[in-house]
Amino acid sequence: MPFKPQLYIFLFSALSAIAFARPNPLITNPRSLSSKRGLAYNSSHPALDIFDPYPKITWGHCWTSVDLGLPSQIEFVPTLTDLTPDALPSWDANVKAALSRGSSSTKYLMSFNEPDQPGSKAQMDVGSAVAGYQQYMNKYAGPSVKLGSPSVTNGVVNGMGLTYLSNFLDACNPCTVDFVPVHWYGCDNNCPVDQDVQMFKDQMTQAMGAARGKPVWIPEFGRLGSLEDQQAFLEKVLPWLDDAAQAQIERYAYFLVIDGYLTTGGALNQLGQ
Questions:
Q1: 81 and 64 in contact (C-beta within 8 Å)?
Q2: What b/e readout covers 4-30, taking b as 16+ CB neighbours within 10 angstroms?
Q3: Over the stretch 154-183, which tens digit does the pLDDT of each residue have?
Q4: How many CA atoms lie less than 13 Å away from 19 in the CB half-sphere?
Q5: Distance set, CA 42 to CA 47, 56, 225, 252, 256 (Å)
Q6: Closest alpha carbon to 248 in 182, 161, 159
Q7: Which residues, in sequence order, are CB contacts of 245 under 8 Å at separation 6+?
Q8: The whole model's pTM is what?
Q9: How far apart are CA 136 and CA 101, in angstroms?
């Protein structure tokens, strides 16, 4: 889901206090970054042209079907976040606009945001997700547009996470599913960075298996804790994500491009860079 209150509480003070604490070895040569990398942002984002110096940022999403000011050189990926009146009436018109965006016209569409999460706006059982996907997503299937299954959490209870994904893939027939988005958030009890790193790798390895050979996207992931812990986490997981051994992981975006997360005062902070 777009707003993670626990994550915000942990990150805001850390980013405000030590945003420019030390050089970031991840960005010594921005052009060396993987083109897998994207932006997860919402309506509270700063001006996104702050990413102009980072040409390997190739795509972005914002849990909706309008681009909210994403620069035209970055591909926007619309999301049919849920099946509510907030999302459905404008879906087709917004997809049409995204498909006509010029050189960065969308080539991908994502579907429901964490329908497996109790209490989320998109919460729905697998049968409802299948029916909604067949009605609102399948019609865009074709060689020029790839479709993503519902984005699931890394929950492990009550049919959540990869269990929900597997049940959806089993039941969605006929459906065109071209890629599989999954979300991940680390432990919330101050666990060691290395433990989170291993948990992340294990979860993504399981997701690649559950995807049945389809590309995996990670449009939302994050670690709780201090800026330094998050940077240590990213220093270990980003090379792993970009390695050829993880070619099945096609795209990823760290949470979140707003002040208190990846920006401070409208500028990229140490973590955001």
A1: yes
A2: beebeebbeebbeeebeeeebebeeee
A3: 999 999 999 999 999 999 999 999 999 999
A4: 18
A5: 11, 20, 21, 16, 8
A6: 182
A7: none
A8: 0.88
A9: 21
